Model the fold of this input.
Amino acid sequence: MKDKNSKMEVLDKFNISDFCDEWGPEKVIQVYDPKTGMTGNLIIDNTAKGPGKGGIRIAENLTPYEIFRLARTMTWKCAIADLPFGGAKGGINANPEKIDKILFIRAFARRIAPFVPHLYIGAPDLGTGEKEMAALVDEIGNVDGATGKPVEIGGVPHELGTTGYGVAIASEIAARKLGLRISDLRVTVQGFGVVGSATAKHLSRMGAKIISLSDIYGMVLNEGGIDVEEAIRVTRETGSVKNYRPAEEYPREKIFEVKTDIFIPAATTDAVNIGNTPLLKTRIIIEGANIAITEKAEEDLIGQGVLVIPDFVANSGGLIGSYTEFIKKTHKETFEIIKEKISMAMGQVLDGFTERDTSPRKKALSIAKEKVFRAMKLRGRTRIENSYEGQFQSKVPR
Done:
């Protein structure tokens, strides 16, 4: 009974007006399944450019506001990459280790089915993968209801690491902007999961030296360089990268103290914050995870001269890969399109990034907002004052 009362208390405190603005969200759907006890939310933020695209995560203590923040990130991410999607996000409140995820996803799918795929297209996220997406599209009865599916039903193979590839491309371009060669740089990756491991693998193949990796169990450091393929094997076989050798092992929090050239947070939301920002010793930060850096921490880092590439630009490789899956492209074409679109977005964002009081995030947001605004205006969905157009100063091709 206590659990039920706590859920009702959360619903009672929820108020959409707390985060509603001129961009969205368009729909906030709260769902509950009495048979499984599944509770969750689907937030469709903005569909001016197309159906809302965003993953479904399973995690404890998810709030509507956190899901909204992720949905809004997807709105800007789709826009900056010039994809025919809007932004959305799904979330199921549960410990993924203590439930039957397939049953929960099927329950979630039944309740969001009226919106899929014309207003929402799902994808994997924290706590979900290709098996869950297969269950979702089966329950809905439409294979276009999600991307990130098993290759047997038209998905892009999980092991391709599309998000990590995009982060690696963004890292190489950011380094070049500072007059640096990726092959001369040391890289630290916080979070050695799907995104972090693929990022490290692709950067290593580009010639970068990966010196430190971490996961929830610990951190390893080898100034001479880590064999990423071996680290992936060890992680797969033992359950943690902390068991990789030769390397020094430390508590996971020590990852923020490593002197490095590129730091890539690829773990959880708000991992880089004012508590650990003073410890960071790096020239470039590439957000591998969504909302990996708090607003104040990013301001402080930029003030210190660190080049920070925001999540919705840097980690859009997975989203672009989802798009290529949706339009039935080959695996080779997928990587070509990811490189093309991230290079285009990075070029637009880094053009003039050294201007006074201008950060890459502000520049990227200006570009993304302009693209969404145009789509909203063409559809007659905006009530924004005409003078709002004058705020956009980016060089977005028309």
Q: What stands out?
A: The radius of gyration is 20 Å. DSSP finds twelve helices and 13 strands in the chain. Residues 1-11, 392-398 have pLDDT under 50 and may be disordered.
